[in-house]
């Protein structure tokens, strides 16, 4: 069975007096390994995004700090914690390359937001400043808050997990405001916050606002990674010329 090669966009850590570091969290790596993939870290090099994507079978856009709202013409809210600009440039370039080359991509939390922004959407900079809600969307990794979401029927996410109510973790204070053209919302929180997004014209270009890599005991998390890896495996076979565009195996 083909083990697809999955790139993970790297984060950047800056510590005074030390060299800058590109890194990724082991929870993403272990979730991908458990699902049958070979994960590789993608350090910032946005000028090479198209070439990198051509060599991959799938892309994970991970969670992290906030997008710079100047991208969509807004000044930063006081609670906006902007990610390192090198990571932002890289993630946006990778998201666009995966979309253009039809490479399967899974966005997690910030990753969903990157997918939306990379394709022309905008974000709500701070949920608590704009939405009256009793839901605790923001929480720390050490103590993830959880809440229910509703997955919309007729979406790719519903075909993977089923439509209806699911309970997920939550660790974000920003959210999708304007959905990118051609995309559709796949899940909502009870207060209306977007919890899932996908491009229905793409083989697998799907983002979730929660952190399935930290929900290893939940079937919804393992099911999502399994579906992503299956899409990446099909892409790998097409890339190697052993699967037709329609998904039919080519005889050896």
Question: Brief overview, please?
Answer:
The protein is of the alpha/beta class and 252 residues long. It has helices at residues 26-34, 49-54, 85-101, 110-118, 127-130, 156-161, 219-239, and strands at residues 5-9, 11-13, 21-23, 38-42, 58-61, 105-108, 123-124, 145-151, 164-170, 175-176, 184-188, 194-198, 205-208.
The CATH top-level class label: Alpha Beta
Order of strands, widest sheet: 4-1-5-6-13-12-11-8-9
Task: Domain count, please report it.
Answer: 1
Query: What Rg do the Cα atoms give?
Result: 17 Å
Strand coverage percent: 15-25%
CATH-wise, what's the superfamily? Answer: Class I glutamine amidotransferase (GATase) domain
Low-confidence parts: 246-252
Total helical segments: 7
Q: Percent range for helical residues?
A: 25-40%
Mean pLDDT, as a whole number?
92
* First-residue to last-residue Cα separation: 15 Å
CATH architecture: 3-Layer(aba) Sandwich
| Helix/strand order | EEEHEHEHEHEHEHEEEEEH
């Amino acid at each position: 069975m083909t083990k697809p090669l999955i790139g993970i966009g790297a984060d950047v850590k800056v510590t005074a007096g030390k060299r800058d570091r590109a890194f990724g969290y082991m929870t993403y790596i272990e979730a991908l390994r458990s699902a049958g993939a070979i994960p590789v870290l993608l350090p910032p090099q946005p000028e090479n995004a198209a070439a990198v994507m051509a060599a991959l079978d799938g892309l994970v856009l991970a969670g992290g700090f906030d997008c710079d709202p100047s991208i969509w013409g807004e000044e930063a809210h006081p609670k906006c914690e902007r990610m390192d600009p090198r990571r932002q440039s890289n993630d946006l370039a990778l998201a666009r390359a995966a979309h253009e080359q039809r490479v399967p991509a899974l966005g997690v939390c910030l990753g969903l937001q990157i997918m939306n922004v990379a394709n022309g959407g905008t974000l709500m900079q701070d949920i608590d400043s704009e939405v009256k809600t009793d839901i605790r969307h923001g929480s720390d990794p050490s103590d993830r808050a959880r809440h229910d979401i509703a997955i919309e029927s007729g979406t790719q996410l519903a075909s993977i997990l089923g439509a209806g109510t699911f309970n997920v973790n939550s660790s974000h204070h920003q959210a999708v405001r304007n959905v990118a053209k051609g995309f559709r919302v796949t899940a909502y929180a009870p207060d209306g916050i977007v919890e899932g997004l996908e491009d229905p014209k793409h083989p697998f270009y799907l983002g979730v606002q929660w952190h399935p890599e930290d929900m290893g005991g939940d079937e919804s998390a393992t099911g999502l990674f399994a579906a992503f890896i299956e899409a990446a495996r099909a892409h790998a076979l097409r890339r190697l010329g052993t699967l037709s565009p329609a998904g039919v195996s080519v005889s050896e």
